[in-house]
Fold HD superfamily phosphohydrolase.
Amino acid sequence: MSEKLAHEKVLRDPIHQFIHIQDQLVLDLINTPEFQRLRRVEQLGVTAFVFHGAVHDRFGHSVGAYELARRITDYFNQYYQSQTEGDGLWNPEEQMVTIVAALLHDVGHGAFSHTFEHLFNTNHEMMTQAIITGDTEINRVLQSYSPDFPNKVASVIAKTYPNQQVVQLISSQLDVDRMDYLLRDAYYTGAAYGEFDIDRIMRTMKPCATGIGFDISGMHAVEDYIVSRYQMYLQVYFHPVSRGMEVILEHLLGRVKELLVEGHNPSDLVGPLLAPVFEADHDLTVQEYLRLDDNLFMTAINGWQDYPDQILSDLSSRFLNRKPFKSIQINEQSAPYIDELEQVVKDAGFDPIYYTAQNDAYDLPYDDYKPTAKKPRTQIDLILGDGSHRELSDLSALVASIKGRASLDQRFFFPKEMLNNGPDDLFSQVHQNFRSLIKNDTFIPGER
Amino acid sequence: MSEKLAHEKVLRDPIHQFIHIQDQLVLDLINTPEFQRLRRVEQLGVTAFVFHGAVHDRFGHSVGAYELARRITDYFNQYYQSQTEGDGLWNPEEQMVTIVAALLHDVGHGAFSHTFEHLFNTNHEMMTQAIITGDTEINRVLQSYSPDFPNKVASVIAKTYPNQQVVQLISSQLDVDRMDYLLRDAYYTGAAYGEFDIDRIMRTMKPCATGIGFDISGMHAVEDYIVSRYQMYLQVYFHPVSRGMEVILEHLLGRVKELLVEGHNPSDLVGPLLAPVFEADHDLTVQEYLRLDDNLFMTAINGWQDYPDQILSDLSSRFLNRKPFKSIQINEQSAPYIDELEQVVKDAGFDPIYYTAQNDAYDLPYDDYKPTAKKPRTQIDLILGDGSHRELSDLSALVASIKGRASLDQRFFFPKEMLNNGPDDLFSQVHQNFRSLIKNDTFIPGER
Amino acid sequence: MSEKLAHEKVLRDPIHQFIHIQDQLVLDLINTPEFQRLRRVEQLGVTAFVFHGAVHDRFGHSVGAYELARRITDYFNQYYQSQTEGDGLWNPEEQMVTIVAALLHDVGHGAFSHTFEHLFNTNHEMMTQAIITGDTEINRVLQSYSPDFPNKVASVIAKTYPNQQVVQLISSQLDVDRMDYLLRDAYYTGAAYGEFDIDRIMRTMKPCATGIGFDISGMHAVEDYIVSRYQMYLQVYFHPVSRGMEVILEHLLGRVKELLVEGHNPSDLVGPLLAPVFEADHDLTVQEYLRLDDNLFMTAINGWQDYPDQILSDLSSRFLNRKPFKSIQINEQSAPYIDELEQVVKDAGFDPIYYTAQNDAYDLPYDDYKPTAKKPRTQIDLILGDGSHRELSDLSALVASIKGRASLDQRFFFPKEMLNNGPDDLFSQVHQNFRSLIKNDTFIPGER
Amino acid sequence: MSEKLAHEKVLRDPIHQFIHIQDQLVLDLINTPEFQRLRRVEQLGVTAFVFHGAVHDRFGHSVGAYELARRITDYFNQYYQSQTEGDGLWNPEEQMVTIVAALLHDVGHGAFSHTFEHLFNTNHEMMTQAIITGDTEINRVLQSYSPDFPNKVASVIAKTYPNQQVVQLISSQLDVDRMDYLLRDAYYTGAAYGEFDIDRIMRTMKPCATGIGFDISGMHAVEDYIVSRYQMYLQVYFHPVSRGMEVILEHLLGRVKELLVEGHNPSDLVGPLLAPVFEADHDLTVQEYLRLDDNLFMTAINGWQDYPDQILSDLSSRFLNRKPFKSIQINEQSAPYIDELEQVVKDAGFDPIYYTAQNDAYDLPYDDYKPTAKKPRTQIDLILGDGSHRELSDLSALVASIKGRASLDQRFFFPKEMLNNGPDDLFSQVHQNFRSLIKNDTFIPGER
C-alpha cells in the first residue's frame, strides 16, 4: 500500500502552477532513472526549429498529465462517488491506477519518436508497457505497491483495463494526455491556438456507465478544445519547415544504416550506446532502449559532420545548422508525376534518395464511434439534463464540420538550392526548369 | 551595407510575442552555424532539475535580447534623435551595431558555462569576441556589412566602444540582456518573481550625455525590476538543489581530468569532439569550442556510467538520474570547521574530494558607481523634470536597502545517504554523528 | 491640421497594455464631455449580473478600437503605401479619418442600448452621426481639424465613405470594433472563449482594391476569431440569466410608460433629466440624449422601489436586487402554444404582460456577400500568393459549417416563483401544472 | 445549520477563475439586497478617471476575498487540523465564520467611501457591523444558521473575536482582503505592480498559537507581496490626477452642504434618497444608508450642472467631464506658505475654498507590532524549521527598508487654468506669478 506523504511536495509548473505530489508511490516513480530519462526527450522534436520556444520535454508533460488526472479523480471522489456497484459512478479505489497510468503513459517515448519508430520499427506504446512490466526500477516501485499493480497500469495503457472510465481518462479523444500537451505546446510555442477552457471541461466531466461523458453545459468548452486541437495540428504540428528538418533527419539516419550495410566499420560510425539501434536483425532490449535520448542522437550527428561520406556529412551539417529542405504541396493528381521533380533534382546533382522526400502530415481531428473502423474512436458524449447521451457532433455544427474529415498536407521536399536564381548559379537552367513546375506553392506537373 | 527585407520576417516568441527581423544582415547572422549552436546550449543548465519547465536555450534569449534592442532603438529613433553632435541624444546610425551586439552577446556561451569556465579556464565573453572577430561564418557576414563591423560589435561587448549609450544598452545593470533573461526565466520556470513592467521601463529609457538614463516617472518600474532580479537570484538561481546537481557535475568532470592525469586512455574516456577540452596545456581553438554543446556532455556522462572507475560511474549516474547532493548552510563562523564534516563523510565511506563540496552563491543585486571598485558598476540614473540626474538609490528606499549588499548563500554539500536514518543502515552511528552537527538546515560545529 | 504631440501620451489599458495618443486632435476628442460620457455607459449592460467581472464601459472599448486602428494603419503606412492612384494600396492620408472614426464609433451609445432603442425607438448609429455632425464639442474639435472633417467621419460610420478600406476597418465582419470588444469582453468576463491571435490577424491584414483582405497565411487566425466570436455569443451574450434580467428591465420601463399614459404625474415618476425620454411623441434632442447614462436609469429604478404601483415597485426591486426571471427554451413547434404558459402564470397571480416574456437571442456569426440580402455582409477574403482572392468559407470547413447559419435561442421567461415546490406554497397546484409543461429545460405544450 | 449544496455553484471570476459556492448559507447571503448593492459601489472610485480599466466593484472583491478564505481554510482543514485544544492548530469549526466574514467584510462600504466618510462623518466598518447585526436580510440569513452567528461574524470584523487565526485571516497586514484587492486592482488597472505569488503565499500560511504565521520558505513571496502593495500605493492609489478629481468631488459635496445651510430648498437640490445624507444633525439609519450607491451621487452631480449656483454647477461639470485640478508637491517647509498660493488663485478669480485644496496621500506599508501605537499592527511572523518565530523585517532587508516608514505625498491642488500661458489669457500676469512659484512640480514659496 502507498502511504500519503506527511506534507505534499509540489513542483512548480508553468502550465498548472503546481504539480501536487501527495503519495510516496508517485514520488518514488518520479525518482526512477527511467522516469528521469524523460527530461532528455523533447516533446516536440524538430518543431523547435520553427517555434524556438518549444523546447519542453516529456518530463514536464508527464507530470502535467498526472496532475490533471489527480485533479479530475479528486473531483470525482468528491462529487461522483459510486454508491452501489454498477451505478455508473466513480470508484475512488481507481484513483491510484489512474494517476499512475497518467504519469507513466509516455515513459516509453524515445528521441525523435516519430522518425525513430518509422526507421527502426519500434513502438513507444509497446515500450511503455515493457518498461512498466519489465526488469526496471519503475516496475519494482509499482510492485512494492501491490504485485499485480504493474500489470494493471500496463493494461490501462493498452486500453484493456476493464474500467472504461479509467481507460478513457488516459486515452480517448479528450484525455489528460491531450489536454496537457495542447496547453503545454501552446504555452511553449507561444501560439494561442492551443488554449481552451480546461477548468470548465474538468468541471463538466462525469463518470458514466460507458466511461466518461460531459455535461451538456460544457459543450462549448469541449467544442473549443476540438477546434484548438484542430488548429494546433494545422498551424504547429504540420508546419512544413519542421517537416523539412524531419526528412533530413530521416535521410541521414537512413544513410548510416546504408553505410553499415555497405560494410563501414560500426565503431567508426556509432558509439557503444547507439550501436544496438543500428545492429542488423536486433530487437532493442528495454535496457538498451533506456540509454537512448536526444543528446545521443544530436551528438552522433555532430560527429557525422566529419565522417568521410559526402552525403552523411552534408545531411548532418544541414540538420545541425538548421538548413531545412524546402517543400511544395502535392496532391492526388500531381503525386504520380513526382518522378518528374526527382529527375530535375537529380539533374542538379543531388541523389534523390537522400535529397528529396514525400511527406504526408495527417490527422483526423475528431470522429464518432465507428465499430467497423480499424481503430474505432471513443466518441465524445454529452449528457443531457435527463441523463440521456448525445454524441458531440450531433449537437455541434462546428464539430460536425470536421468530424471524420482528415486534415492532410502532402508535400514534396527538396534542397533549398533548387530555388536558386542568381547570376553565378551553376545549375541555372535546371533550377529554372524546377521553378517552372511550381505555382502558388504547389506542384503543377509539366507535359512530357 | 545591409538591405531591409522586402517584408519583415517574424519568429513566434512566447515572451515578446514576435521577434521582428527586418534586415538581411540580422537574418543572415541567425542562419550561421555559430548562432544555431545556441539552440543546443540551455540558458539555465542544472536549474531545470528543480524547475522542470526551465529548459529554454540561449537561442531564444539571444533573439529576445535583439528584439528588445530593436524596440528601444526604434523608440530612440522616433523620439530622441540627435540634432547636433554632442547634444546627448541618439544617433540612428548606432542602431545596427546595437541590435547586432544584442543578438550576438551570448554567442560564446558553452554548455554548463559556469562549471565549464571554472574547470577549464575559459571565458564566454572572450569567446564571444573571438567568434565575432575570428574565422567564422558570423565574422564573414559581419564583414559583408562593413569591414570594420566585426571589431565594432566586439568592442561593444568588450565595453570599449566609444558610445556609452550603445554599451549600456548591451551591458549595464539594466540592459537588454538582463531584461530578457529575467522575463524569460520567469516564464519558463513558472515563477512570477521575475516579472516586471518592461513596457514602462522601455518607455522611460532616455539617451543622455552619460549613456542611458530613466525618466523619473519610471522610477517605480525600475525599482520593481531591481527587486524582481533580487528575488530571482534568491529563489531560482541560488536554489540549493540545483547547486547540489552542479557540484556533482563539477566533481565528475574533475574526476575525468584526474583519471587522464593518472594515465587512463583518452580514447576510452572522451570522444574526438570532447577530447580537446581535456587535453593538458591546450587552449581550445574557436573551431574546437564551437563543436561543444550540452548534448556532447550529457552523452559523455551517459557513457561514463559504464566506465570502470567507481567514482566516475557513480557520480555520472547520480547526475543523469537526478540524485542531487544535499546541503546545509555554513557561515564565516562555521566554515573553518568544515573538515569536521568532511571527516564524518569520509567515515561513511565517501571520498570527500568527490563527495563533498563547499559552494557559495553570490550576487550583488545593485550598486552605484564606485570608481575604485575592481569592476565599477554603471549606476542607474533617474532624470528629473529639469534634466538633472539622481542615482536610483538616492530616491528609492527599496533599492537603497539592497545597494552594495551582496546576497550570499554558502553551503556544504554531501551525499543524501548521510541523512539516512533506517534500521538497516550500515553506517547508522556515523550518520547520527553527522546529523548531530546540523540544526535548522545549518552547520553547528561540535566540540572536539 | 492636427499637430503631433511633442511626446505621445499613453493610457494604461489592461487589454492592449497602452493606448498611444500621438495627435492633439485625438487628445482633444477624448477630453470632450460627449466622449467622457462613455465612462458612464457600460459595455455589456445586464451581462454583469451573470459575469460579475464584466463591468467595463464604452470608454475603454472606444479607446481600444482607436488603438487597434492606429496600429493597423501605422503598419499599412509602413508596408503597403500606395505608389500610384488605383493601385489598391493604402493612402496614409486616410489614417486620421480612420483612427478618429474608430474612436468615435460608439459615441452615440446610451444606457442599456439594446433595451432602450427597442422601447424608445432610437438608434445608436444615427445618434453617433448626429453627435459628430451636430452642435457638440466633438463637432467643434473635428471642425478645427478641417471644416468637412465631421462629415467625413460620420460618413465612415454610415459606411458611405468612398474608401472601402477605411469603411471595412471600422465596420465589417472583422473590424477594430469587434476585435476590441471580443478581447475586452473575454478579459473582463474571465471567459477564455473570446481570445484569439490578434497580433497575427493584424500582421496578415492587407489593403486591396476591394477593401481589406487577409493573407492566406493568416487563415487559421481568422478562423479562430470567427469561432471565438461564435462562442462568445452562445456562452456570454446569449446567457439566459442576463436575458432574465433584461426582460425585467424592459417591462419596468414599459410600466413607467404605461403609468404616464394612464395619467400619473411625470414629476413624481421621472426627474428632469429622464423626463424627455418618456415624453409622448417627442424625439430626443442630441443635448437631451447626452445627459442620459447608466446612473440615471439605475437611480430611477432605485427610487421606483418606493413608487405606489405594485408592479413597478416589484419589478424595480427584482432588477436592483438581481432576481432574474427564469426561462425555458421554446421553438417553432411550441411557440404557438405559449398562451398556455401565460395562462398558468396568470393563474398564479402574475400579470403576464409584465411577468412573462418571449425573448429571442439571435446572431448570424458569419456570412459571405449576398447582394440580395437586406443588409449584405462584407465577406472576409483571403489573398493567395498570386494575389487572387478566395472567400473565407471556401477554404475553411470550420467557417463553412457556421456560414449563413443563425444562432438562435428562443426562450420564454417567467417569475422564479413558478418553480416553487415547497409545502407552504400557496399556488402549489398551479406551480405543479407549470412544471409539468417543462422537460429538459424546454417547453413541451400539454394537451388542451 | 447550513447545508452543503448538492452540487457546488460557481461564479466565473477573472482573478481566481472560479468562485466556488458550496454552502446554502453563502448562496443566500450573496442573494440578499444588501450584498447585491455592492455591485453598485465601485472598488476604486475616482481612480478609474486615470486607469480607465479599473471600474470593478466591491461585489467582485467581496466574493474574491471569500474565495481566498475558502481555499485557505480548506487547506488548513486538510493539513493543520487541531488534535488537542491549545495545540495552536486549526479548528475546522471556524471555517464558516471565517468565509462568511470574508464575504461580508466590505458590505458597509458606500459610494466614494473615502470622501463620503470624511464629509458625512460615517465609517464603513461600523456600518458593516450594523448591517450584519441590524434589521436586514443579511442578519436574517445569518440568524437562520445560528442565533449568535451575526454577532460572531461582526466580532471578527471588529477584531474582537477570540480566535486570532480567524481575525488575522480577515484583517491583518496580509489578509484575504488585501490579497484580493491587490490582485484585482492590478488586473483591472493593467498595472503589473500588484501581482505577487498568491499560490505560494497560501501554501506557506500556517495557523499557530498567536494567529497566522508563514513558513520561512515563503519569505520571498511575502516580501514580494509587501513590495507590490507598496508599489500599488505609490503608482496607483496615490495618483495625483485621481486625487485632482477627488478634491473636486469633496468641494462640490461641501458646496451642497453649504447651500443648504444658506437656506436653499432641499427638494431642489437633493432627491428623496439622497436627502437624509445632507440632513443636519441626522445620523443615517442602516435603511437609509443601504439605498445609497454610486449611481445616486453621479446622477445628482449630473443634475447639479444645471443648478443656479455658479460654483456648484461648475464643479459638477468639471467632475462629470473629467477636468481634474492640477497639483504640485508641497512639504513641511513650504506648507506654511500655502496662503501665498491661495492668494494668487483668488487673484485669478477663483474662490480658494472651492478651487484649491491640500491633499495628503499617506500609507504605512508595513510595520511590526508596536504595543504603544494607537492602532498596533499585527506583525508578519515567519516560522523557522524548529517552530520558532521571527518578525519579517528581521530577516528581510527589503521589508526592513520600508518598515515603519510612511509613504507620504502632500499636494496643493488648483484649477488647470492657473497654468494657462496663451496670448489671449485674461489673467496672464497672475498666471505668470503662479508659475513662478513652481519648480520641478514642487511649490517653492517666494519672498514676500
Notes: Chain B has a mean pLDDT of 93. Chain B touches chain D through 26 residues (CB under 8 Å).
